[in-house]
Amino acid sequence: MNTNYSVWVYQINRKLNAQEEALILAKLQDFADNWTAHQSPLPANVLIKYHQFIVLTADESSTKASGCAIDSATHAMQSIENDFKLNLFDRQLFTYKIAEEVFTLNATDFQLAIDNGIINEDTLVFNNLVHNAEEFANKWEVALKNSWHRNLFNLKNETIEK
Questions:
Q1: pTM above 0.85, yes or no
Q2: Exposed / middle / buried, residue 149 (Cβ in 10 Å: 0-12, 13-18, 19+)
Q3: Does 72 lie in the same domain as 55?
Q4: Are residues 13 and 80 in the same domain?
């Protein structure tokens, strides 16, 4: 992924099956192939990671994604939500990875997983707030202790204001 690429990560509330993934990729790649900003082509691509994250990338080296372009991407994602009965915009869900397995919990259950020792400061969490290809490559999967998530939860042996 080129470092000029902007990245938008949409976390899905559940894992996709192979058929859903193929249909969603086809629909979103069609969107990406025709995405424009101020009537100029916006080179873009889409991928699905861990069967649970849609990653939209755009090469903004020649054309910047305008507000209207970003709105059209949001509408495309809302269409995916409706067509596949998904939630891509629930900011109260937190996803973490143990070994190569990805899990998603609401905030209450995430804190319980910390309290029960399932999640600790070294557990990988997903920082879906990354903005570009470099951040995606280096800061998307990050240890809880190095993530903004740590400000939301009480880690064992540590007092953090919520």
A1: yes
A2: buried
A3: yes
A4: yes
- The answer to whether 35 and 44 are in contact (CB under 8 A) is yes
Half-sphere exposure in the Cβ direction for 48 (13 Å, CA): 22
Q: Are 106 and 95 in contact (CB under 8 A)?
A: no
Contact 51, 21 (CB under 8 A): yes
Considering its fold, how many domains does the chain have in total? 2
Q: For residue 3, what is the DSSP state?
A: T
pLDDT reading at 95 higher than 90: yes
Identify whether residues 35 and 79 lie together within a single domain.
yes
Instruction: Evaluate whether residue 156 is within a structural domain.
Output: no
Quote the CA–CA distance of 124 and 144 in Å, as a whole number.
6
Residues in the chain: 162
Judged by DSSP in three states, 95 sits in strand
Which domain does 100 fall in, by range?
Answer: 93-151
